[in-house]
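Notes from the pairing session

We agreed to fold both candidates in a single pass and log them together. This is the raw record for the first candidate, unedited. Please don't reformat it; downstream parsing expects exactly this layout.

Candidate A
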Amino acid sequence: MTTATNLIHVNHLTKTFPSEHGGTVTVLDNITLTLHPGEIVALLGKSGSGKSTLLRCLAGLIPTTSGTVHYRGTPLQGANPGVGMVFQSFGLMPWLTVQDNVELGLRSHSIDPTSRHRRALAAIDLIGLDGFENAYPRELSGGMRQRVGFARALVLEPDVLLMDEPFSALDALTAENLRSELISLWHQPDFPTQTICIVTHNIEEAVLLADRVIVLGSDPGRIRTEITIDLDRPRNRHNPAFDNYVDELYASLTGHEPPTPHTETTPATTPLPHASIGGMAGLIELIHAHGGERDLADLATDLSFDIDDLLPLVDAATMLTLLHVHHGQATLTTTGQAWYTANIDDSKHLFGTLAEQHAPLIRTICRALRASDNGTLRTDFFRDVLQRTYSRNELHRQLDTAIGWGRYGELFDKDTEDRLVLTDTHPQK
C-alpha cells in the first residue's frame, strides 16, 4: 500500500529496454515491494535478475516502462529526492579532492559554501577519513575510496541509502571491515538515513546485513521470495541459525520455476546458463567425492566462491538432469552418475543427447540444421532469430555457450566461414 509512511513503494513495476535490432528485452517484470523506515533490505539475485536496474528505478535514474515508484506517497517524476547512492565502481572524480568529491551532491542542491564545507567535514569524519580531506582518489586505497563514496551519499542526509554491490570491488578483508563499520554506523543514533537497500549476489553478505532479503529470479527479474532475517547484531557466521538462513536463500536461488503446463520451453523462456563443460564436470566430480550429495552453501564456502561463480554451473547441471537440487542440497542423479563414470566417447554422446533433450537453444539449432538442405546454416541466421530476445552481449554469450556444448556433445560444429555444421553422430529426433 502506498502511504507517506512508506519511504519507497514500488507497484507492479516492469522495465523493458529496446533490443539492438528492434523489439524489446524485459529486464524486470511485475515487481511490487516497499521499503519501510528502520530496516536494511537486501536485493539478492544472480546475474540477469535486474537487481541494479531495480535500484536505479528506486533512485529515479531510469523511468519505469509500466508500474510506479512512490517516495513518501508521491509518484516519482524524475530523480528521487530522498535517496543517496553508493556504487560498486566508487565513481569518484579523480581531479577532485576527497572533500570536493563529498561536496558534489551538495553543490547540486545549491547549498551555500559554508554549510557545504561543514557538512562534508562531518560526513568525512563519520566514515573515518578525517585527515584525508585534501587527498586525491589516486592516493587512496580501494577501501578508502569506497568510504568517500559512502560519505558523498550520506552528506545528503537521505531517507534511503541505495547501495549497488558496494563491497564487490574490494578484497575480502577490506570488504568485511567495511560491512562491520556500516552496521556500527547504522546503530548510531545520529546516523543520517532511515533505510538501507543493498544490491548483492553474496548470500552471506545478505544474511550479515539485512533485516529482509528479497530474492529475484532471472530473465526477467521477478520477486521469487522474501525472507526476514530474525537475528541480533552483530551476527555470527558460526551460529546454526545463520547457516539455516544461508541454506534457505541458496534453496530459493537454485529453485527452478516450473514451465507452464503443455508449453514447450524455448530459447527465450529458458536461456542457457553460462557454464563450460569443464566447469560442470568439476562440479559433478566434487559432489561425487562427497558421496553424491553436497550442501551448496558449504561447497561455495569451501571453494571461496560467490554465488555468480557457482550457480551457473548448478543451473546447467540441473537443466541437463545431472543434478537434483532441493532446499540448497545438490544430489547427483542416476544420469549424473552415469555421465561421471562413462568413458570419454560415451560421456560426449550422453551429453549431446541430454543437451538436445533439455536445452532449448541446443534443440532449436539441431532442428534448424536438420531442416536445412545440407546440414549447415550461417551463424548470423541464429543471431537474427535471437536478437529480439537478448541484448547484443547476451546474444553472443548464448551462442558461444551453445557452440561449446554442441561441439562437446558432437551435435554440431562451427567452421571457418562462420557456419554451424551438423555432425552425424546423433540420429535425427
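Candidate B (folded immediately after A)
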Amino acid sequence: MRYFVVFLLLFITAFSFAQSSEPESVKGTIIDDGTLLPIAGVNIININKVKGTVTDNRGNFTLEASPNDTLHISFIGYQSLKVRVTNDWVKFKTQTKIPLTQRAYTLEEIVINKYELTGFLPIDSKLNPVKENYRYSISGLPQGYEGGENSPNAFKRLVSSVLNPADLLHNIFGRKSNEMRRLREMKKDDTVRNALASKFDRETLAALLGVSKDEIVQLLERCNYSEDFINTANDLQIMDAISGCYEEYKVLNRD
C-alpha cells in the first residue's frame, strides 16, 4: 500500500510537471460574419511571439500564445483583424469563434496610354523613358531587385542616420530595436514567411514591426530602394530588404 501511494504521488507530480512545461496556446475558429461558415487558409500570426499558423478546412486553428498577446488575422478578400488574447481563453482552452468581414472593393477607372514611337531613337527614348534603377540581390530569392547597396548614396545615408539622432532610420531602428529584432524570428517561422510572401499590402508586416505603412515606405526610401521595388515587391521581400538595411545600420552604429 505504501508503494502504491508513493507511485501515485510520483505520477501526479510528473503529470503536473508535464502540463506546466507545455507552452500556452489558444484555439479558435475563423468564420465569415455574414454566412457564419468557416474559412480555410486564414493566416493567424502572434505578433508578440512571431509565431504563425493557418486555419484548416473547418476554419480551426491552434497557436502558441500567452495572455495579452496580440493575434493578427488576415485573409484575401477580408478585413484584417487584431485580437487580444485573454486569460480565460488560455486557461479554459475554449474554441473561440472569430468572425471576419468581407472587404468591399471599388474599382477605379484605369486609362492606359500607349507610346507612339517615331522611329528616331533620341525622340523615342524621351517618349518611353528607361528608369535607372539599381539592382539588389536578396538572400534566398532567385530574382534581383532595385536597392541601395550598390547605390553611391546608400552608405552615406546609413552613416548620417547613425550620427544624426533626428534621422528617420535612427528613430525607427534605434527606438524600435525590440521590434526590429523580430526580423530574425520572422525568418525562422515558415508560416510567417509564407504569409508575407503572399501579401503586398504591408499591413501584416507593419503590425509585426510596430510601424506604420508610411514609415515602411520612408524607411526603404532612406535605404535607397527604388520606387519600383517599393511598389511591386511582396511583404517578404520588403522584410528582407528592411532586415538587410537594419543589419548594416547595426554594424555602423557598433563601430
